[in-house]
Amino acid sequence: MTDSKTPKIRLKDVHKSFGPKQILRGFSLDVMPQESVVIIGGSGTGKSVMLKCILGLLSPEQGEIEIDGQPTVHLSNADREEVNAKIGMLFQNAALFDSLPVWENVAFGLIQGKRMKRKLAHDIAIEKLAQVGLGADVGKMSPADLSGGMRKRVGLARAIAGDPDIIFFDEPTTGLDPIMGHVIDNLIVKCVKEVGATAISITHDMPSARRIADRMAMLYQGKVIWHGPVGQIDNSGNDYVDQFIHGSADGPIQMELLKL
Ligand SMILES: Nc1ncnc2c1ncn2[C@@H]1O[C@H](COP(=O)(O)OP(=O)(O)OP(=O)(O)O)[C@@H](O)[C@H]1O
Q1: I want to staple 109 with a disulfide (CB 3.0 to 4.6 A). Which of 59, 102, 113, 227 is the partner?
Q2: What is the pLDDT of residue 3?
Q3: Is residue 256 within 6 Å of ligand 1 at its C-beta?
Q4: What CA–CA distances, in Å, run from 183 to 6, 28, 110, 165, 171?
């Protein structure tokens, strides 16, 4: 058990390079239990790399990542599996298997990871589909026959299927129209609350970020250069944040393309 003052997720001075390319250069961030933090930052700044480091898919060459106060960077495979079993994930493209019916996509982690009996996993999948507003009839369909918004709902149902402590949302509204994006944001907020999870999201969609974040953190040149409650984002006093949230081509952030 951990107390409420222990961050659910702590990244301390994380460095990650690929050859000569330094992507994370001292990334530090604490995410408190049941907090929803959105990471913003330009394309290619390392937001996905940061999530992959937390999941153990990439190994930082310096720094530490703690979950519930426990260091995770050098875990054995078995311990890593145990940590990752606490984490749900909604991928950018929902990453559904078209060869399996919707319910089995939702139940995938329960059957494969938790070795749950199919009947029980099926019933939980139907319950989770209901939580995201989809009926049992959708459970029998192929993901290939669903609209983009429905696929996102199914991805969300799968992310919450194992009642995770932590959920990652990777660009949850990409590819959706603004109204469906809003609906998915509301569902994300509702589901995260119902499960009692801690959430980290990465997105370029500022209206979505404002809806789902308690706090935002801006990544620039491998570090968190500003973080604060979502209500302070418009008065951050940080020129980089201002440029980013207004999507302005002029300002201190010089995109690689603009240098050409
Ligand atoms: N396995 C890898 N090998 C080499 N380079 C990589 C690898 N993974 C990521 N990178 C590089 O790291 C940089 C950051 O990538 P990342 O996907 O984290 O960016 P991002 O901030 O999530 O971008 P976007 O918002 O466009 O999705 C990019 O330059 C990318 O090419």
Answers
A1: 113
A2: 64
A3: no
A4: 32, 32, 26, 23, 14
Distance CA 178, CA 3 (A): 39
Q: What is the 3-state secondary structure (H, E, C) of 201-240?
A: EECCCHHHHHHHCCEEEEEECCEEEEEEEHHHHHHCCCHH
Mutating to test ligand 1, I would choose from 49, 52, 223 the residue with most ligand atoms within 8 A of its C-beta, which is 49
What crossing angle do the helices spanning 178-195 and 148-160 adopt, rounded to 10°? 10
| Residue 21 φ then ψ, to 5° | -85, 110
Distance CA 139, CA 145 (A): 12
Decide: 43 in ligand 1 pocket, CB within 6 A.
yes
ipTM score: 0.97
Question: Residue 103 in contact with residue 141, Cβ under 8 Å?
Answer: no
Q: Which token pair is 161? A: 């299927």
Regarding the beta carbon of 49 and ligand 1, being less than 6 Å apart is answered: yes
- DSSP letters, 74-135, are T--HHHHHHHHTTEEEE-TT----TTS-HHHHHHHIIIIIS---HHHHHHHHHHHHHHTT--
On whether the CB atoms of residues 86 and 115 are closer than 8 A, the answer is no
| Residue 244, token pair as written in the block | 């980013």
Beta bridge partners of 36: 199
Which pLDDT score, from 0 to 100, does residue 116 have? 86
What domains can you pick out in the chain, each with its CATH number? 9-241 (3.40.50.300)
Indicate whether residue 51 lines ligand 1 (CB < 6 A). Answer: no
Average confidence (pLDDT) per 10 residues, the chain, 260 residues:
80 96 96 96 91 94 96 92 90 83 94 87 94 92 92 91 93 86 89 91 92 95 95 92 88 63
What phi, psi does 2 have (nearest 5°)?
A: -120, 155
